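dumping these here so i dont lose them again. two proteins, back to back, each one seq then structure tokens. dont judge the mess
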Amino acid sequence: MALPLLEDHRDLAEAVAAFAARGGVIADTRANFKRYAAGDRPDSWDSLVNQGLHAVHLPEVYGGDGASLAELAVVVEQLGMALYPGSYVPTVVTGGILATGSGSAAATMLSELGAGATGAVSTGVGVEAVRTETGWSVTGTSDPALGLPGADVVLVQAQSSEGELWFRLTPAATAVVEVEDGIDLTRAIGTLTLTGHPVSDAEIVHGLLPQRVELIVNTVYAAEASGLAAWALRTAVDYVKTREQFGRPVGSFQAVQHKAAMMLVRSEIACAAAWDAARSEDHDVDQQQLVSAQAALAALPIGIENALECVTLLGGVGFTWEHDAHLYWRRALSIAAVVGSEERWAHTLGERSADAVRDFSFVDPDLLPELRADVRRVFADVELLPDDGTTAASWAPAKGSARRARFAEAKLVAPHYRAPYGLGAGPKEQAVIAHEFATRGWAQPSTVIGEWVLPTILEHGNAEQHDRFVDPTLRADIIWCQLFSEPGAGSDLAGLSTKARKVDGGWIISGQKVWNSGAHEADWGVCLARTDADAPKHRGLSYFLVDMTSKGVDVRPLKQSTGKSEFNEVFLDEVFIPDDCLVSEPGQGWKLAATTLSNERLSMGSTLHHGSSDQFRTVIADGSHDCSREDAVEGLGRSISRELALSAMNLRGVSARLADQEPGAEISVSKVYNALAQREGSRDLLRLLGPLAAVVDPKANYAIDHIGLPSILFGGGTVEIQLNVIAQRVLGLPRS
């Protein structure tokens, strides 16, 4: 829920939070609304300057620390959580922009900012510059600019026939700053009106690139929005944990838990968007433009949404003037407004994504050269093997595949498994292997349901089970299905009724399972059955391995609403299971089913099957949309935004593990958001099509694709169940 991943960033965040706590920021802010709205500095400004927080990102020659945009974002997020008043953020934005420029005007302004001056940036298409014999004449009124009233240093953007003109504003009768009545009570906002204002060549700031300016502005305000969203989440959760209604904590009610969990989901998205933008400072222009638009589109609205939800969870007390919630809400509204409309950024991201794809690779190409060489040798061997239908697009399990066998022999199907089944690859090794596959344009091999089965067998099974099942599964000689869900249990896995009774040499299982993906093709299934009817429901379960060819196993494909049969119901009628197919001990099934994700492979991307950006691109390319191209491109932008959010969250989890940290909430959050993103994307796609969505198209069945959503929304537990898990296990809200 916060930007820092590296240890030095966490230390920086703690120091900033401590500074804000010592300063009594909120109390000071409430006592000085009028002063700060007029542009006065906070009383703690000198202390902030003494600690160098205003100049973290400025070059050392100008009194700064020479840190990157990533460090600045950490500071901004923490001060956003504290609702630090005045022109801090406008000041650091001004400095960040100037640090990318050149010329004497930029150097002078940077020196002043480094010494503690406040700053602001004034922009707007209404300000125009015309060449004169002595320089420029500028006329027009700017857009409302935060921090402009009272700013010591003002950087102005004007439009000219020669392109953008950036210059230092010098006091003159031709320049008037008007203080506006801002929605944010803690920060000044104003407009600049210039009437034939003279600008000499010495006042021009050179070398400012639009994409760099945009990146700095959007990243900083996204970081502040992340801080605002995190404060709203923490405040709401703390309140509902202790506030009681009807004799129990408000936080125990499911509706409240779902609201709080969705606040966490949104907060993680905002944080990931700001983090991804901040780390892209040295990336190429296309990459910067993608993450910049994403930061504005994904993070800024979340500050508003979480602040509003905070008020709704606080109830009447949150709707009072005395509570701080409306101050955070006001700031979130203010910064989202000045950065620009959500629709504009969605359209911008859509246009930019037409020719560019976000590159989430982060591994040093020189890292672990010996491992890379080994992987490449395996790749060379695989390319020489005959085509057996196992393609690089998925390396999907295909029995008897020499290609798949070569990957298994090289321990590359599950490199994170311990020897002799894998390489015992840690996060760095996994990242390097994944990078090699991605560089070649190949998918990494998968055991599909085996991804969940094998770690359980390896952790809880015996040596004979290891030998019998692990290698054949990695070679794709064994295909698995999962026999957990039941018609009467739904998402309540512990409520299942399939029973197993002990007999000589094994067990007899009877019951019915449902929604079993791939059971009609599986060789083996993992089955939870009740072995002790008298034990509490979570303790009376056992974990069995079922030969799907056994007598009494009846697999019946289920025809879904899409017309396809991808799932099955499985009837178990007095099926004999030998003792050697019980994993661990009787009664340990719940523990085994809930095996931790510690063995799960790294996930460094995201795939949206429904409502993917590729589907939007196809609709735009073939002109099948029943709307303007602008609306279609906006839809693409929103789809891209959802995919970027998931990928950035996944990458944060990977980066945490590479830094020897345990992943945070992003794993649980991505599961929920992935399902919701596919739901939103699929529906958005249909909105573009109009009448064409009513016709079944064999090449692009968007409506049928939408009807297939339940497999995503139900799979692995419904979204609502997963929200319960987030609320209770991550946020610590009480069970009902």
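---- next one ----
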Amino acid sequence: MSFDARGAVPVRPLRIALAGNPNAGKTSLFNALTGAHRKVGNYPGVTVEKREGSRFRNGREYVFIDLPGIYSLTAYSIDEVVARDFLLDERPDLIIDVLDSTNLERNLYLCLQFQELGIPVVGALNMSDEAEAKGITVDEKALSALLGLTMAKTVGTKGSGIEGLLDLVDRAVAGWVKASGPALPRSIRYGDEIEARIEPIEAAIAADPLFAARFPPRWMAVKLIEKDADARERLSGHRDAAGVEALAASAVAWIEKHYARDAEIVVSERRYGYIRGAAREAISRFGKPDFSLTEAIDAIIMNRFLALPIFAAILWGVFQLTFKLGAYPMGWLESAFAWLGGAATSALPAGILRSLVVEGIIGGVGSVFSFVPLIVILFFLLSVLEDVGYMSRAAFATDRLLHSFGLHGQSVFPLMLGFGCSVPAIMAARTLKSPRDRIATILAIPFMSCGAKLPVYVLLSAAFFPKNPGAVVMLVYAIGVSLSLASAWVLSKTALRGDPTPFVMELPPYRAPTLSGLLWHVGEKTQSYVKKAGTVILASAILVWAITSFPVYRPAPGLADSGTRAEAAMEQSFAGRIGKFIEPAFKPLGFDWKIGVATVTGFTAKEVIVSTLGVLYKVRGGEGAGSSGLRAALAADPVFSPLVAFVLMLFTLIIPPCFAALATIRAELGWKWLGFSVAFMLILGWGLGVAVYQVGSLLALAAPLAAGGAA
């Protein structure tokens, strides 16, 4: 690192990595340090890529990189690989190791590994308030002296201790200036017998200066003794890779013979022994409270007989509350867009411009905007469940069920994220260690009903099932979950044979969600939805308006009825011609050409189905611009019926997700699995839709006959 002439201020930003175990409050601390508002969830896997944020202090810029939470530098899952590769390949100037003060002995294991990387380390004793509430007192000065690195107490959710932590960073930087280089942290000693095996390997690695400059010799030597696959792969770049590997193999053989245990276990035991000694010196416990709220709640929530019914009841309550609370603001928005449409009709002369504004922009986009309150409420309730700590319990509650379908218990996290948006859900599958589990989970995620599908469900359920639309929507969500599990089961028995890996995970304590955190979570998701409505959906609505308005229809002299003229104009438009061409493929599902056009446009984004229907039916019906007018128009169309509406919801649920989600699947799994996924969902969506419609139609015909026979 270089400095200016005074030797006080870096001439480039200071790059600081925030790393640590999952659930240590790392992202909360990142938010407090940078003023960013990244998602903070109470379970592992929220951060699946490194994120950057900056802060200026005393004339210096600090660039913080928030790495995924990991338990060890021996990486298995993709998020662990992201963290390890960043530290090894990009070499930050300093690591802030974020430690959970309530569980320091487990967290310090990773800290010892950081010290061997040859990168300066500063410790953040996070959640110090929770530790004190549990009767745990940490002497940070004593612990710092024992470990050979400086530490500060912090509370990331409250922004407490941030300045003190940055003071430690400044002192580390000042120490570099004084010593003309970084003062590296002290690494642990594994005992004379093991050190006698590490030192020759370390010396052999250091004999190649170029290799040693990239990979710290001691860290590499220890990893080779731990039989780390990635370390062996990296060793291929050493000029005497064979000689180093022979030394490592000899050391491993001696250790395993001498201790009668796996070499990796021997190294782990030495680390934990060192940690236990430091903990006895620096950590005091004044007794555990007789009453633990977390344990009392878990006695009910995690009961083997009650866990799944409680999980189902919570989701049912979320949907019911969403509809009950969202009905009022949704009605206000519908009225507002209806008034706006009327005002535009009065202000603009009849013609193409008024048609574009009223039927294309207001009619199309307004239909989608009306659902914003439902999106806000749903995301708020799901964020509460995440932040309070219930989602990790949901993972345990569904673990046995998921295993029976060939999925991993931790798959529940990305699957639940799929209720919000498929893109981050697919990326969250990186936390799964097994490639088999990861592929199965990613291919199952699109069957979960993302927020973009909700407007379609709400529109159709309110129009055709007005007595209990919430129950219908939850039924569609439940079908999606069932199809997700069924598809995973089929894959586990065919293309992805093998047993899912064991599920081991900690249960964090329940924590009260912060209002600011909830508002930022909801605001971020709502902003994304509104942005999509103002860009992709607006563009789609204008395009649909254009293909339904052109070529301009010239009615025959005798065609006087306005409804007949409008119908004929629609059929003669580009949209009508396209729809008539594809109508035979949709006819077995009970769809006419208009519904077919709407479903095709929905491949860009599922909300576009609503905006397309809004444009198509506003052109014909002339109702107000809100979704209430669209509901009335759909209900008045003889093609539509409760059965057709349900099939359309089912078809929307199953067909491939939006282009952004498809691009994410390709990035994560490649073209082969993307092609398989698209083909599978198209075939299943069409086949199941046809089956439901045809069987439903037969039952509808049979019902009057049965009633007549009974009479």
